[in-house]
């Protein structure tokens, strides 16, 4: 009977308590041993849960390698705050163990004077220096300069020996990129091709010349989209002359996707993204992130009151009209939100672009008619059971068709217009769309009522 693999589940709360007890007893060796047995992601989570004094104590006992793993797993803001508490002579060995791109990100967030001083003291500053030239959210900011470039006239045996000498990390070995004598990217070869090739085969004879690459200034979201689209485990980064500058690996892609998804969700809810984990962010900062959009939405929501004021006479003539206001604006808002969420996702995956606005609107218009007709029947039934007035029920049914059509139109076009003008679609959608639909939905409803009911 074959062995059944068993998932090893770690009780991080229990381990956290053990580390706290060891630190409380000043048994730094024991605390460091416990941390050393964990994976980097678990180390970072436990480290984040310790208070500042405990973090400083534990860090003083950890090896530079373990400390580097923790720094690489922490959010940028957390890593920067931690680095501020560590003297340069202790921080330098840690940064020497970090991946070049991670070390560059940390240096880029520091005060320029300290960053320059630390850079000069590192073992391999030339690996990191080029990475500091690129903004964090670009391909240049994501790439690592730690890669092996093969030459076209190398043999397969020579390439394998070069890999042995290099001793790469696991995530950097799947693809190997080939350059000419000027350092220009000319091909790619995967590890399997290299292993099965005859030892004397030339790299230029077995490499693939059709290489997907990006330039250093490409936005990280486009990088993630490209790697996901073509199932790439690594993506080369070149300059304008196609000189190979670095490589982006799939683990960086995961970080980008998580970061972009988090930002979009927070913005879709009408708040600015948080730089740090939620529980580590003070209530004052969270308030600052939310208050701006709340005020804007509050002012926008006053349009609803203005519309009701405009139709005050009609409302007084038939008070029953107000019974269906929550039903109608709620349905319109929900229909618009469904559409907006779909279009934002399609924009993120590259399936639609701003130039597709007319096609998207026409597609959603047909969906809206079907949805509206589907909602009109139950809306009529509900209205006639509440108020014994067939014309009022007809008004509600007609209004809901028009409202759904209007809401889906707004919900489909808002993200596309935002993207066209370089604004994050999630930022202008969600709550803003719902508030707009509320106000305009009332205008549509009362206008239809005025016509059909002769008010």
Summarize the structure.
The protein is mainly alpha-helical.
Cα shape:
elongated
Q: Structural class of the secondary structure composition?
A: mainly alpha
Q: Compute the average pLDDT.
A: 82
**The CATH topology of the largest domain:** Tetracycline Repressor, domain 2
Q: Spell out the helices and strands N to C.
A: HHHHHHHHHHHEHEEHHEHEEHHHHHHHH
Beta-strand fraction estimate = 5-15%
Name the CATH superfamily classification of the largest domain: SLC41 divalent cation transporters, integral membrane domain
Helical content band: 55-70%
Oligomer: single chain
Could you name the ranges where pLDDT drops below 50 across 5 or more consecutive residues? 1-7
Task: Please write the CATH class name of the largest domain.
Answer: Mainly Alpha
The radius of gyration is 29 Å
Distance between the termini: 81 Å
How many structural domains in the coordinates?
3
CATH architect. name of the largest domain: Orthogonal Bundle
Strand numbers in spatial order across the main sheet = 1-2-3
Total number of helical segments?
A: 23
Number of strands: 6
The biggest beta sheet, please?
Answer: 3 strands, mixed
Descriptive report:
This protein has a 3-stranded mixed beta sheet with strand order 1-2-3. It folds into 3 domains: 12-135, MgtE N-terminal fold (Alpha Horseshoe), CATH 1.25.60.10; 149-259, Roll (CBS-domain); 278-453, SLC41 divalent cation transporters, integral membrane domain (Tetracycline Repressor, domain 2, Orthogonal Bundle), CATH 1.10.357.20. The N and C termini lie far apart (81 Å). Helix 2 (28-36) packs across helix 4 (52-61) and helix 3 (40-49) crosses helix 5. The relative contact order is 0.07. The longest helix has 31 residues, at 390-420. It has 455 residues and is mainly alpha-helical. It has helices at 12-24, 28-36, 40-49, 52-61, 64-73, 76-84, 88-97, 100-109, 112-121, 125-128, 139-142, 156-166, 191-196, 203-206, 220-229, 250-268, 283-310, 312-317, 325-349, 357-386, 390-420, 425-428, 431-453; strands at residues 149-151, 175-179, 185-190, 214-215, 234-238, 244-249. Helix content is 65%, strand content 6%.
């Amino acid at each position: 009977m074959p062995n059944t693999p068993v998932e090893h589940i770690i009780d991080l709360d229990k381990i956290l308590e053990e580390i706290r007890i060891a630190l409380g007893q000043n048994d730094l060796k024991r605390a460091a041993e416990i941390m050393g047995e964990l994976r980097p992601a678990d180390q970072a989570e436990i480290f984040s849960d310790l208070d500042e004094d405990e973090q400083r104590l534990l860090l003083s006992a950890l090896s530079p390698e373990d400390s580097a793993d923790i720094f690489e797993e922490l959010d940028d803001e957390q890593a920067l705050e931690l680095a501020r508490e560590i003297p340069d002579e202790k921080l330098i060995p840690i940064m020497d163990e970090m991946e070049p791109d991670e070390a560059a990100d940390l240096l880029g967030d520091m005060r320029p004077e300290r960053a320059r001083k630390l850079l000069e003291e590192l073992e391999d500053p030339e690996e990191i220096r080029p990475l500091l030239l690129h903004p964090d959210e670009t391909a240049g900011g994501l790439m690592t300069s730690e890669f092996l470039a093969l030459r076209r006239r190398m043999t397969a045996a020579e390439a394998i020996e070069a890999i042995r000498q290099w001793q790469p990390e696991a995530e950097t070995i799947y693809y190997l990129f080939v350059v000419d004598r000027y350092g220009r990217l000319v091909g790619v070869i995967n590890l399997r091709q290299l292993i099965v090739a005859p030892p004397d085969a030339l790299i230029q004879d077995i490499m693939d010349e059709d290489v997907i690459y990006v330039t250093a200034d490409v936005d990280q979201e486009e990088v993630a989209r490209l790697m996901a689209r073509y199932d790439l485990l690594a993506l080369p980064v070149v300059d304008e002359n196609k000189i190979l500058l670095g490589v982006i690996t799939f683990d960086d892609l995961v970080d980008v996707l998580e970061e972009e998804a988090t930002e979009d969700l927070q913005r879709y809810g009408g708040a600015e993204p948080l730089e740090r984990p939620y529980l580590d962010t003070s209530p004052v900062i969270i308030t600052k992130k939310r208050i701006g959009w709340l005020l804007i939405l509050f002012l926008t929501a006053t349009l609803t009151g203005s519309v009701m004021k405009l139709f005050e006479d009609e409302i007084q003539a038939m008070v029953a009209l107000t019974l269906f206001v929550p039903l109608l604006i709620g349905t319109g808002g929900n229909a618009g939100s469904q559409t907006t969420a779909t279009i934002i996702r399609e924009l993120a995956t590259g399936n639609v672009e701003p130039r597709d606005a007319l096609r998207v609107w026409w597609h959603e218009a047909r969906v809206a008619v079907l949805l509206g007709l589907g909602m009109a029947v139950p809306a009529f039934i509900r209205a006639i059971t509440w108020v014994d007035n067939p014309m009022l029920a007809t008004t509600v049914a007609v209004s809901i068709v028009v409202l759904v059509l209007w809401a889906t139109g707004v919900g489909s076009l808002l993200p596309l217009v935002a993207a066209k003008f370089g604004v994050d679609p999630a930022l202008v959608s969600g709550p803003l769309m719902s508030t707009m639909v509320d106000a305009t939905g009332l205008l549509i409803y009362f206008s239809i009522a005025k016509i059909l009911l002769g008010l």
